[in-house]
Amino acid sequence: MSSRTSYDSNRTASSGDSARSNPFSLFRRTTTKSLYMKEMLKAPEATESLGTELQSLEIQRRKGLDFAAFSPTAGFAAVAAGRKLKIFSWDRKADLRWTCCWAGTMLRECVKASERMVAIALSDSLVVVAAEDGFEVYELSTDEIETSEEKKPVMQVMGLSDLRAIALPPKTPKISGWICAGTGNGRLLIWGIRRGGGGEPQKELSLKGYNGTTLDIPSAMAFNHDGSRVCVGSRNRHIYIYELGGDGSSPPKLIELKGDFGTGTSRFIRFTAIAFLSENSIAITTDSRFPAGCPSVFDIERKTRIAFGGENETLDAQSLAVSPSEKRLVFVDSYRHRVILVKGSPQGRFNSGIAVKTRVTDLKHGSNLFIAALAFTHLKLEDGNIDEQEKILVMDRMGTIQLFSCNE
Known about the structure:
The protein is built from 1 helix and 30 strands. It is mainly β. It starts with a strand and ends with a strand.
């Protein structure tokens, strides 16, 4: 019989004078809890004016995480290092108890013996783990699964080449919808998710290169809420949006957005993250080669940029998340190792600009390329209803989870 391991804590943080003098009044301190795998981790000292650590995750690799991700509603979290993957579930109640659902070695059938994960993605029902030559899709559940040897992939695709990015629709129903993979030779490969599926993709697209003839590299991609559209950012300074349709019988319809990217010294821009704010708007983040390297919001129908967050400082924006209310987005500034919250204006929307940009917390420095995973979530109240106030979850490169409450 497999067993479930639960993690809780009895450690309480003192808010002290630093909380009373906190100029970032948008965030409220809460009780500190620690989450451990083998031993209790010592909570780092809180920095004045920043958020308080709520929980910590420890994986077996002490050097930190290669990847981490939250599900869209943040009921699940995934942490990865090498080929090791661990999935945690959370009932989103205020006691913040995380449970390790299952853990183990993924991608055993990769050709390269030293193959590592290159990407992971979560929906509310599925997790996909990808290496350079293939990927596996697993069903998320809170069943008492102890190791991945007991967990069989729903879908497995091998024999690919130079896979760079992968995406799932955020609201993927169980064993349905699309999965999209981007490769280093400019191919966009799309499969319908089905149990026992794999083999050749149902759709294969090519991204035009910088000179219009060569193929280019996709660096970030995301689906909209229902999976009918996928957005891809590539190094040729273009954003591509494909309408996929429901049954896959019709060819994808392309909407090509050309932002004012690449006006700096380099013609190549690395899109670090993409997210749909609504059906008609997307948010993107880029590296610092794009002037200011800040998040931008684009109107899909008008094919124009409607908001830009980089008037005052240079950033290197990564790990983007947007709120369900469409009023906020949060991203990682990897240049200064901090998390930034952005609010739209007026009426809290992004249709005419950015109103407020606030530092949420500082992040640990390190050599890992991965910096932090972000998500918005809502807590469940004692009566079973959902708290309408949005919360921010942050998981850093060492597996520390922090929760922040946004005041209206």
